[in-house]
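Progress note, sequence design subtask.
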């Protein structure tokens, strides 16, 4: 086990004392003469809030060893607490087991091995208080700091009745769970947008579900954490499945053109909107509630700590009006309407018919957005509007340009795991108004027309960047961002590919906002319940600063770039940036089966084909995993003629590849159309981190007292494997100039291609080989036409360039 904590605030001693008093952990006057054992036992007595009598408390403390032969009571009868005894007890409070997780004879060594902070000497009152303060902020075996574990057992129960003027209650720069989740107010409002997407002559109303502390009724104004989730009110999965596009179709030749960006640039049309509703009255309380929302466990954690939680699914979803548009400016406008209401700049109503206005009077006007995938995508979209009230977004696995989600370099390229999905399929899946039959009838015809327009606009025939996709490119509007941005992305996420976060991160570089980036080794996942990283506490620190305006140093404490190591489990590294401080820029040239430092002196051609025998094709269509294993295996006879593999010599020094590798290829095709795909590969027999986390503890993380729970997760090492795909890329040979322009392709003629692979941050150990695999059809992402198309590479015009850092073996 190894723990990594980045949320701990270095706190002066006097402030430690004050904070311990504020949370009622220190309720006696301490002087240099205070008895150490008496003070230690007073701290321990508060570590069992579930004990309701002195007998039970004595029993609980008596179960803890302070040395190899004595429990706490026996130890304190004969000895004075020191660092060894303190941390022997502390480790047990943190959930570690004597003998299994640590040796009682060496508690400090165990703390060092766990990468946990400790005080090597405890001999004075100031030492003991500082050590206890830090122990409360130390991460335990269950993936929570000790204070959060105590909170889940009822420690803060007495403090939930604090007056609103004394909330939020802060400790170590973070808001504490002193808000009674049993008494959360659940209410529904309908926010009036500036849209009429269903063309019914009325502005679309948008349903929002709110969970806020009871304390807001006593005068406390709280910030809002808002998650825009088109899935929140249900989905039409069966309807979406029926719409999936056929990918077992050949690539087609495209008619050459001379288009420029100006030809396809999106310009918002002028739209005449219906008048606003006439307000018929005012209300302080909502008319509608709900029993259970589709929650995000990070939001559950925040709800116990004084943040109102808001969920809204947007236009065309169940309970709201309008129709789905999938990623366009209308959906962005739908998303920010909720923020505008929370900030006091838009109207909402208690129901959809009576026009009784209700304000977000309980909100302090500060809003953050959270969520993964489509949820994080809409957070990014909202930020690019510069909407007032939005202080920060936490965008996880978010799309920054929808073209980079469904397309690549003039090709239809599916998000990993969903071949055949496209914008129209996603719109259908999220049109949850369909779940209410009578409501659906009112918008059925309009949505059918909208869906047809999406299908036409997405243009699966060419795969080119066009006006449809330009309207869904949030990167164009990054300059409008005024809020701070915290980005999270998986380096093995082939659903929302890493280019999305890479481009957003780079685009933010020159803006006067804080940007933070966390890159993990997973796929398309959340990371708030991982043992090795204090992610929830980091977010608490961040949002306490951003939304409650607490000067806790969050902007400096949280790393600018935090990267999970891909070789060593439970290890994270801080960097100042993604690739700018890379110390090495290397260009490798392609030679037969090799990547070398020497460029080919003359034309040297290698060829491969795209066609597979029907039995192999059928097998690979059913199993992308089997296909990729054969593709990367240099000894595979099945794929021997369908790809080219180039590898470096075994590395003499470790190499950390950073950013987006750039590839130059001089290639030809035997037909008048074609596509190329490439993979960057780590070759070397080794155990590797799995990209799907293992569950270490089922429902072992509690968000608060009598509140919701989450599973504890972590990435585990797999059995040894011969290789691992690091990155990939695809290109249509007719889009050599730009994704929006189609060039001619003459069979057999060589053309120069240049394109980037998906960005990465990958540690390649010494003795491994860096490999480049060039092929055509990607069974998981491109169309699978299985054409008799033969490709050639002229190695004299082929090279791979990348940035890296290097360390000696």
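Output:
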């Amino acid at each position: 086990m190894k723990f990594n904590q980045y949320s701990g605030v270095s706190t002066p001693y006097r402030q430690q004392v004050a904070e311990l008093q504020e949370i009622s952990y220190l309720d006696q006057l301490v002087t240099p003469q205070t008895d150490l054992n008496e003070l230690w036992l007073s701290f321990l007595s508060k570590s069992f809030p579930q004990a309701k009598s002195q007998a039970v408390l004595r029993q609980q403390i008596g179960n803890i060893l302070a040395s190899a032969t004595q429990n706490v009571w026996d130890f304190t009868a004969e000895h004075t607490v020191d660092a060894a005894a303190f941390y022997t007890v502390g480790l047990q409070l943190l959930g570690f087991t004597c003998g299994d997780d640590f040796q009682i004879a060496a508690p400090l060594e165990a703390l060092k091995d766990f990468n946990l902070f400790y005080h090597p000497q405890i001999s004075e009152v100031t030492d003991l208080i500082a050590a206890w303060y830090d122990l409360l902020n130390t991460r335990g075996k269950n993936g929570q700091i000790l204070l959060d574990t105590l909170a889940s057992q009822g420690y803060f129960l007495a403090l939930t009745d604090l007056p609103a003027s004394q909330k939020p209650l802060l400790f170590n720069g973070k808001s504490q769970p002193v808000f009674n989740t049993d008494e959360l107010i659940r209410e529904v409002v309908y926010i009036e947008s500036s849209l009429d997407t269903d063309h019914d002559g009325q502005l679309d109303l948008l349903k929002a579900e709110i969970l806020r502390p009871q304390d807001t009724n006593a005068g406390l104004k709280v910030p809002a954490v808002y998650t825009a989730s088109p899935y929140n009110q249900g989905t039409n999965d069966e309807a979406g499945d029926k719409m999936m596009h056929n990918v077992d179709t050949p690539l087609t030749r495209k008619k050459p053109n001379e288009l420029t960006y100006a030809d396809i640039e999106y310009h918002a049309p002028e739209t005449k909107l219906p008048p606003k509703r006439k307000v018929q009255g005012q209300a302080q309380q909502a008319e509608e509630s709900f029993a259970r929302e589709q929650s995000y466990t990070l939001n559950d954690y925040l709800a116990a700590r004084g943040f109102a939680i808001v969920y809204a699914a947007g236009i065309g979803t169940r309970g709201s009006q309008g129709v789905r548009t999938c990623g366009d400016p209308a959906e962005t406008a739908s998303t920010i309407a909720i923020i505008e209401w929370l900030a006091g700049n838009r109207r909402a109503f208690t129901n959809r018919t009576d026009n009784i206005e209700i304000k977000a009077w309980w909100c302090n006007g500060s809003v953050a957005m959270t969520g993964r995938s489509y949820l994080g995508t809409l957070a990014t979209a909202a930020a690019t509007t510069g909407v007032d009230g939005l202080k920060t977004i936490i965008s996880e696995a978010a799309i920054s340009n929808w073209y980079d989600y469904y397309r690549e370099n003039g090709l239809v390229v599916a998000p990993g795991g969903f071949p055949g999905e496209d914008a129209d399929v996603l719109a259908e899946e999220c049109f949850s108004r369909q779940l209410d039959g009578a409501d659906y009838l009112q918008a059925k015809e309009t949505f059918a027309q909208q869906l047809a327009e999406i299908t036409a606009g997405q243009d699966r025939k060419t795969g080119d960047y066009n006006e449809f996709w330009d309207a869904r490119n949030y990167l164009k509007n990054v300059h409008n961002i005024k809020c701070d941005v915290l980005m999270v992305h998986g380096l093995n996420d082939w659903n929302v590919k890493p280019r999305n976060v890479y481009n957003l991160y780079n685009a933010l570089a020159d803006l006067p906002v804080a940007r933070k980036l966390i890159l993990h080794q997973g796929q398309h996942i959340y990371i708030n319940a991982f043992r090795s990283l204090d992610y929830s506490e980091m977010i608490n620190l961040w949002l306490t600063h951003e939304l409650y305006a607490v000067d806790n140093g969050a902007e400096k404490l949280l790393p600018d770039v935090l990267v999970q190591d891909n070789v060593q489990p439970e290890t994270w590294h801080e960097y100042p940036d993604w690739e700018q401080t890379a110390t090495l820029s290397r260009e490798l040239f392609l030679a037969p089966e090799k990547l070398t430092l020497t460029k080919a002196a003359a034309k040297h051609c290698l060829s491969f084909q795209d066609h597979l025998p029907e039995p192999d094709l059928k097998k690979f269509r059913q199993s992308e995993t089997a296909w990729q294993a054969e593709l990367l295996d240099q000894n595979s006879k099945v794929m021997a003629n369908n790809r080219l593999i180039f590898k470096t010599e075994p590395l003499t020094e470790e190499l950390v590849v950073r950013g987006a590798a750039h590839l130059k290829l001089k290639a030809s095709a035997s037909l008048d159309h074609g596509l190329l795909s490439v993979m960057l590969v780590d070759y070397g027999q080794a155990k590797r981190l799995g990209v799907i986390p293992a569950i270490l503890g089922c429902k072992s993380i509690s968000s608060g007292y009598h509140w919701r729970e989450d599973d504890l997760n972590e990435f585990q090492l797999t059995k040894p494997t011969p290789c691992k795909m690091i990155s990939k890329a695809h290109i249509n040979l007719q889009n050599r100039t730009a994704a929006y322009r189609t060039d001619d392709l003459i069979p057999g003629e060589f053309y120069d291609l240049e394109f980037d692979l998906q960005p990465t941050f990958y540690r390649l150990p010494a003795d491994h080989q860096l490999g480049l695999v060039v092929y055509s059809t990607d069974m998981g992402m491109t169309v699978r036409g299985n054409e008799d198309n033969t490709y050639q590479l002229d190695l004299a015009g082929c090279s791979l360039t990348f940035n890296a850092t290097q360390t000696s073996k």
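The chain is about 25% helix and 25% strand. Work on this subtask will continue into the next period as scheduled.
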